[in-house]
Design goal:
Blueprint lengths: L1 H4 L4 E3 L10 E5 L3 E6 L4 E5 L8 H26 L11 H38 L9 E3 L1 H21 L28
């Protein structure tokens, strides 16, 4: 959610010769911002949805889908937790709910990973394009790194939930209990 809302998906690069500027430029999924050397920030929301590049629209859609899937995954996984009273009578169904929540988390993480990697690839290709003017080159912003970390954590958490898959019945020999001791009357002690 934080990565999607941040305007720092790409930031202006100052890697050229003798570039002195009094402002920093940022672009995100929803707006572009300029920060002056005085600390004042001015942001402008993109005017039209239809004027945006199709790759930016797809990145927006993937990030919003990732957020919604993550929220659904939380609710599904919570119902499958052992400490919850919901579906308490059938432990197998309860564990399957936890696994299903893990699968939803993995899909959510993959959607965020695809979106951030795709956007990062576009930024890198434009940076190394020789036809891109030096003063309009952008680098990775902090929102991309947060998005990559969040996607990795969602995939890792979903994998852990999937590892709680119920085991199939095995044909091990039945375990024998320990023999019960006869209650002592206290005469055995000295």
């Amino acid at each position: 959610i934080i990565s999607t809302a941040m305007p720092q998906w790409k930031m202006a690069s100052y890697a050229g010769d003798n570039i002195v500027t009094a402002q920093a430029l940022y672009e995100g999924l929803w707006m572009s911002c300029a920060m002056q050397s005085t600390g004042q920030i001015q942001c402008k929301v993109y005017d039209s949805l239809l004027k945006l590049e199709s790759s930016l629209q797809a990145t927006r859609a993937l990030m919003v889908a990732s957020i919604l899937l993550g929220l659904v995954g939380v609710f599904v996984a919570v119902t499958g937790m052992k400490c919850m009273k919901c579906m308490e009578d059938d432990q197998v169904k309860k564990m399957r709910m936890a696994v299903f929540g893990g699968v939803i988390f993995i899909i959510s993480g993959l959607a965020a990973l695809v979106a951030t990697s795709w956007y990062g690839n576009r930024v890198a290709r434009a940076f190394y394009d020789p036809f891109t003017p030096v003063n309009t080159r952008f680098e990775f912003g902090s929102a991309l790194f947060i998005g990559w970390a969040a996607a990795s954590l969602a995939i890792l958490g979903g994998s852990f939930l999937c590892c709680s898959c119920p085991r199939r019945e095995t044909s091990y020999p039945p375990t024998r209990g320990y023999p019960k001791n006869a209650s002592s009357t206290g005469k055995d002690y000295v």
